[in-house]
């Protein structure tokens, strides 16, 4: 997957198997499939026009408070490019009307609506529905 | 298959190859090229640039690989010694024989060395090849080490002599020009323009000696002076002879080709010599009883010879060759075109002269006042392209022709636009590209930038003199197609960075959303957000803490994100000076948080592997030990690298470390379009590599030399000289202004080297702005820089002291757990991130 690292022989590679199992954790969840609304944190904990990372069991979910649009978005925190948990630290923005997040590592951008990679051919990221109730942020999961 | 042998791999010889392989029929021929210099053809016209960067590769017409790619056999370092016309073979100095069907002689010229007593002495050079230049450089360096005020003379005040004068200046020697005639550039300029040029050159430090016949060169083994008359002696320790050229026509003589009385191989309008299988082009060809020492006619000859050999025999040399030239000599525009000296019987001259501004313009018009016949421009040749075209195309001129040269706004106006030219007008004479071709390239082939047009048509790729006109043509054509020529930041802002800079400053907008609402559209993106953040920082010295979600991740968390999502921490170690106590403190903290440590290229210590939540804890401890942020994460000043300087070094001329610390503390925290670095060296040995930095100071006898616009990285670039031997205060002032000017005008993510490259007028223009104040803005620049210096604060101190800012340093917003995904493995007793699988 991705770049081959030229490591000294005594360094163990992060097993592909592990990456597969991490990826399997994340599945785009349409709102009608939601079985659990997870109460993540107070609205005030999230920066305006920015994101923060929510822990849900073993999952890491990036949640964005897109104030300019007046909307909230959630997606996997994992960037599929180099498999690092960083998307919540990315900048939000807009690409011809599509809300997006730019990965802080290499500026790969993903649609916050569909998860699709907007400036390349990486696999799409998983997205999740968000709702706000009584000043709290809830993320919807099907498991 | 026929064999064409080209003897000589100079500019014209190369041009022959280029035009030859472009022919469809070129596959029917084998092309073999011999050059006696050790490298492929290079741009001799811009030879003096070698002194600025010592980069022979940059001057190459094409890399060695180009010849192979085009099926040309190139043999450098192999001089052709003989021609056997009967057998149609040549013999090289290595005693190898090759046979030819056609032979093209392009051996060019060598420097003419007048028979003066003592010319063989050490320290006497000619100015012709890169090897000549290398010899000069090492001789000059040895001279300067002995005597920093050494003088060097150039024999010859013509075009090449003045170029050599620039080389002497660049080498840091006191330059003297010695000319036999009573004026400079006697072949191109009349007496008045020559005087204006002399005044200008003297004002920038050249010493000029006219009407001097050199009797002998003084000195035992090496030159120590030149003697003109009995008591007329000039003490110089180096001499560059540039007294004209001699065609290298030995092969013509030895093989019995028809020769000119004073040298040169006679050719006809097909460039054919007296042997129908042998052609001669460039500076050895005697055409119309003339040797043409300019590039454009040489290229034209190459094109004619190519056509003749490949069977397109109707292309012949024009009966009259245009000798018009425009050049920049030591930063001074000089141009002459058509008939520069006009006998009164043939026409009238209109002359504009302003010695206070070192300006001279002369045009010669026909007696009926209807046609332009020629002219001379010194000091400002911006009208040259237009005037030259009017002359070449016999275009009508205004009834009051003085309007052509009078300064605009002074009753005069610039006449016409490039678009008024006929389509057949040749705008690039080096490559023979017409106005029509340029415009078609834009209109029909969709080339919408000067760069694209240059690639498609080759216009501007020769001497580059036509660039302003081609730029006009491209922009005007785009406009005529209804296209807007504009640089915009992204889909959200219809402005260039510089325009947005002015808006933010003039309207005092300090908030990104407000800027987007009032001057942009949509919801922003990862391009315009950090750009706006950089503007707010450069203008208001706002730290990255205030609007953190418009910052790149590094600025948002005030640390450098690394491969596995952890961060590295770099405290400022100004000038690279660090005490044992500070090292112990840093070591203790790095050990406590289990950080990988490494010395950076900028002479400081980088600590890797900090998790997000650890950053404020680490910084709290660093700040308690007296450290402050090093801004290694920002598009801002990184470090000012220094050598140890006169405080310890036995060669040091000044205290480079003290200066580096002072300057690093002055510019720390200043945000700019890209990162920038500095360097201070205590002597010309340059251990701090200051010329590889965006700004650099080098201590010399009598002060500091300032260099700007260098960098390492993907496109390494040596910094260029901004000022010489200035005191520290002046040095700081000039660099203050340069940096502010760069910050205000550069495009996003453009380093100073690229900025300088793109800046019209280059380094000379920067000098004009920051030293001569040609824009009248230095007071403003000084004020703005001082504001940034005065309002610096350590943004990490601000962050650790503010609980609200500190709160963002957690991986999870709803848990204090660490990110389990981060994995380290061991490496040479330290740690590194687990590799990407």
UniProtKB/TrEMBL annotation, chain A:
InterPro entries: NasD-like (IPR052034), Rieske-like_NirD (IPR012748), Rieske_2Fe-2S (IPR017941), Rieske_2Fe-2S_sf (IPR036922)
Keywords recorded for this protein, A-Z: 2Fe-2S, Heme, Iron, Iron-sulfur, Metal-binding, Nitrate assimilation, Oxidoreductase
Keyword match RNA-binding: no
Transmembrane segments: none
Limits of the Rieske domain: 38-139
One Pfam family of this chain: Rieske_2
GO biological process per UniProt: nitrate assimilation
GO molecular function, one term: 2 iron, 2 sulfur cluster binding
Domain of life: Bacteria
Matching NCBIfam families: nirD_assim_sml
Name listed for the protein in its UniProt record: Nitrite reductase (NADH) small subunit
From TrEMBL, chain B:
Keyword terms, alphabetized: 2Fe-2S, 4Fe-4S, FAD, Flavoprotein, Heme, Iron, Iron-sulfur, Metal-binding, Nitrate assimilation, Oxidoreductase
Binding-site residues, siroheme: 687
Domain of life: Bacteria
Pathway membership, UniProt: Nitrogen metabolism; nitrate reduction (assimilation)
Residues that bind [4Fe-4S] cluster: 643, 649, 683, 687
Keyword Oxidoreductase among record annotations: yes
Co-factor binding comment: Binds 1 [4Fe-4S] cluster per subunit. Binds 1 siroheme per subunit.
Entry protein name: Nitrite reductase (NADH) large subunit
Alphabetized PANTHER family for the sequence: NITRITE REDUCTASE (NADH) LARGE SUBUNIT
Biological process according to GO: nitrate assimilation
GO molecular function, one term: heme binding
Cofactor(s) the protein requires to work: [4Fe-4S] cluster; [2Fe-2S] cluster; siroheme; FAD
């Amino acid at each position: 997957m991705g770049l081959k690292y030229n490591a000294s022989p005594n360094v163990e590679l992060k097993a592909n198997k592990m990456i597969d199992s991490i990826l399997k954790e994340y599945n785009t969840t349409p709102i009608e499939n939601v079985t659990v609304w997870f109460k993540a944190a107070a609205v005030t904990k999230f920066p305006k026009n920015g994101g923060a990372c929510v822990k849900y069991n073993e999952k890491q979910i990036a949640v964005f408070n897109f104030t300019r649009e007046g909307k909230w978005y959630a997606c996997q925190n994992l960037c599929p490019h180099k498999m690092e948990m960083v998307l919540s630290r990315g900048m939000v923005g807009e690409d011809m009307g599509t809300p997006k997040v730019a990965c802080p590592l290499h500026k790969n951008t993903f649609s916050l609506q569909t998860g699709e990679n907007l400036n390349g051919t990486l696999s799409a990221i998983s997205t999740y529905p968000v709702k706000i109730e009584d000043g709290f942020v809830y993320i919807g999961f099907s498991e | 298959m026929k064999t064409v042998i080209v003897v000589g791999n100079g500019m014209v010889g190369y041009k022959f190859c280029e035009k030859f392989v472009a022919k469809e029929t070129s596959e029917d021929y084998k092309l073999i090229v011999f050059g006696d210099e050790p490298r492929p053809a290079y741009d001799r016209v811009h030879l003096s640039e070698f002194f600025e960067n010592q980069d022979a590769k940059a001057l190459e017409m094409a890399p060695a690989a180009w010849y192979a790619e085009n099926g040309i056999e190139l043999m450098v370092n192999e001089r052709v010694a003989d021609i056997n016309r009967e057998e149609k073979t040549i013999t090289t100095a290595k005693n190898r024989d090759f046979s030819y069907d056609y032979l093209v002689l392009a051996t060019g010229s060598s420097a003419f060395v007048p028979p003066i007593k003592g010319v063989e002495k050490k320290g006497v050079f000619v100015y012709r090849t890169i090897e000549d230049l290398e010899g000069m450089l090492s001789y000059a360096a040895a001279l300067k080490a002995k005597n920093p005020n050494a003088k060097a003379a150039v024999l010859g005040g013509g075009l090449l002599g003045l170029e050599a004068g620039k080389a002497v200046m660049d080498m840091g020697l006191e330059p003297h020009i010695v000319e036999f005639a009573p004026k400079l550039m006697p072949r191109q300029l009349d007496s008045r323009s020559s005087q204006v040029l002399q005044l200008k050159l003297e004002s920038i430090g050249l010493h000029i000696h006219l009407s001097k016949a050199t009797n002998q060169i003084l000195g035992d083994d090496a030159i120590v002076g030149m003697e003109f008359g009995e008591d007329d002696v000039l003490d110089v320790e180096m001499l560059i002879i540039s007294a004209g050229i001699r065609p290298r026509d030995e092969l013509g003589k030895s093989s019995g080709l028809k020769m000119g009385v004073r040298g040169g191989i006679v050719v006809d309008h097909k460039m054919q010599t007296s042997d129908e299988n042998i052609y001669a082009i460039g500076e050895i060809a005697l055409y119309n009883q003339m040797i043409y020492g300019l590039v454009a006619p040489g290229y034209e000859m190459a094109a004619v010879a190519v056509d003749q050999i490949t069977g397109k025999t109707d292309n012949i040399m024009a009966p009259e060759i245009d000798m018009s030239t425009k050049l920049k000599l030591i930063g001074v525009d000089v141009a002459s075109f058509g008939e520069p000296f006009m006998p009164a019987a043939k026409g009238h001259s209109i002359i504009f002269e302003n010695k206070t501004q070192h300006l001279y313009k002369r045009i010669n018009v026909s007696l009926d006042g209807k046609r332009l016949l020629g002219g001379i421009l010194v000091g400002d040749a911006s009208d040259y392209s237009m005037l030259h075209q009017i002359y070449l195309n016999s275009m009508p001129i205004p009834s009051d022709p003085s309007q052509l040269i009078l300064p605009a706004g002074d009753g005069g106006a610039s006449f016409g636009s490039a678009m008024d030219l006929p389509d057949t007008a040749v705008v690039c004479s080096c490559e023979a590209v017409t106005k029509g071709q340029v415009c078609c390239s834009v209109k029909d082939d969709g080339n919408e930038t000067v760069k694209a047009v240059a690639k498609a048509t080759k216009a501007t790729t020769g001497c580059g003199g036509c660039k302003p006109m081609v730029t006009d043509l491209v922009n005007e054509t785009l406009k005529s197609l209804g296209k807007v020529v504009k640089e915009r930041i992204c889909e959200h802002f219809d402005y260039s960075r510089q325009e947005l800079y002015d808006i933010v400053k003039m309207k005092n907008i300090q908030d990104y959303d407000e800027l987007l609402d009032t001057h942009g559209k949509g919801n922003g993106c990862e391009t315009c957000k950090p750009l706006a953040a950089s503007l707010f920082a450069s203008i208001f010295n706002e730290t990255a803490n205030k609007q953190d979600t418009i910052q790149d991740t590094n600025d948002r968390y005030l640390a450098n994100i690394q491969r596995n999502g952890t961060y590295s921490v770099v405290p400022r170690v100004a000038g690279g000076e660090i005490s044992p106590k500070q090292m112990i403190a840093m070591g203790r903290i790095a050990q406590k948080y289990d950080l990988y440590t490494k010395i950076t290229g900028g002479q400081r210590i980088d600590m890797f592997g900090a998790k997000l939540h650890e950053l404020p804890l680490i910084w709290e401890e660093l700040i308690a030990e007296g450290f402050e942020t090093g801004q290694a994460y920002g598009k801002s000043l990184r470090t000012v690298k220094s050598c140890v300087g006169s405080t310890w070094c036995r060669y040091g001329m000044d205290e480079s470390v003290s200066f580096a610390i002072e300057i690093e503390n002055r510019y720390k925290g200043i945000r700019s379009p890209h990162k920038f670095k500095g360097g201070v060296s205590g002597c010309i040995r340059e251990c701090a590599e200051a010329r590889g930095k965006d700004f650099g100071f080098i201590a010399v006898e009598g002060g500091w030399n300032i260099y700007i616009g260098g960098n390492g990285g993907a496109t390494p670039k040596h910094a260029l000289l901004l000022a010489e031997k200035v005191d520290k205060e002046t040095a700081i002032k000039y660099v203050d202004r340069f940096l502010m000017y760069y910050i205000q005008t550069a495009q996003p993510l453009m380093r100073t080297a690229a900025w300088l490259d793109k800046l019209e007028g280059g380094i000379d223009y920067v000098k004009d702005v920051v030293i001569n104040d040609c824009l009248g803005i230095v007071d403003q620049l000084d004020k703005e820089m001082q504001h940034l210096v005065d309002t610096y604060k350590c943004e990490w101190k601000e962050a650790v002291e503010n609980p609200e800012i500190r709160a963002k340093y957690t991986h999870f917003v709803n848990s204090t757990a660490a990110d389990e995904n981060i994995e380290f493995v061991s490496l040479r007793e330290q740690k590194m991130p687990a590799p990407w699988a």
